[in-house]
UniProtKB/TrEMBL annotation:
InterPro entries: ARL2/3, P-loop_NTPase, Small_GTPase_ARF/SAR. The keyword Translocase does not apply. GO terms for molecular function: GTP binding; GTPase activity; metal ion binding. Keywords: GTP-binding, Lipoprotein, Magnesium, Metal-binding, Myristate, Nucleotide-binding. Transmembrane segments: none annotated. Mg(2+) binds at residues 25, 43. GTP binds at residues 18-25. Belongs to the small GTPase superfamily. Arf family. It comes from Dreissena polymorpha (Zebra mussel). This is Uncharacterized protein.
Amino acid sequence: MGGVCSGYTVPKKILLTGPKGSGKTTLLYTWCVGGKDAKVPRTESFNVEMVHGPRGGQLLLVWDVTDPIRRRQFFHGTEAIVYMIDSRYLSDLDDVRDDLHVLLEDRDLKHLPVLLVLGKKDLTDMFSLDELGKKLGLLEAMQSRQYDWVSVRKDDNRTYQTALYKLCELIFS
Ligand SMILES: Nc1nc2c(ncn2[C@@H]2O[C@H](COP(=O)(O)OP(=O)(O)OP(=O)(O)O)[C@@H](O)[C@H]2O)c(=O)[nH]1
Ligand SMILES: [Mg+2]
């Protein structure tokens, strides 16, 4: 539940991660500006931004970090994971699968809700979610945690708002 202390809402800490160039910072800054064209800075190390969810009192502090080694320092206190994949590489997911499993097995991240985001859907054809689930071993990986998925494309802001809505459903419901 969202913590409220003396009238202030305590934000939920979110880890936004996934392979390099998958579209994480575009997602984060689109959430921040609420649907207008987001200016996306190049990510040197990490980005961190406060994001308002669709309902009052839904406040998220989102840490956007790619590097699998450096991101470890951001795990403590995390309350949900957003894992982003570039949809163009759905046919070659071995590295993604390994990275995702290492992340989900970390003791600081066990049992946390996960939103899987498939980015750049404007650049790819349809795919089967069953097939994706098998390739990523989602059935085992998502056992004992809440999980959802969504696809986004930067030419359609509604897809980013749907992603934010689903994330808040996972965290606040
Ligand atoms: N066509 C298309 N391009 C996108 C989309 N989302 C992001 N991009 C582009 O993909 C590139 C990488 O996007 P970023 O948001 O910087 O990706 P990132 O995951 O933050 O990258 P790193 O910080 O390097 O890990 C940029 O040129 C974006 O404009 C999308 O939905 N469709
Ligand atoms: Mg980035």
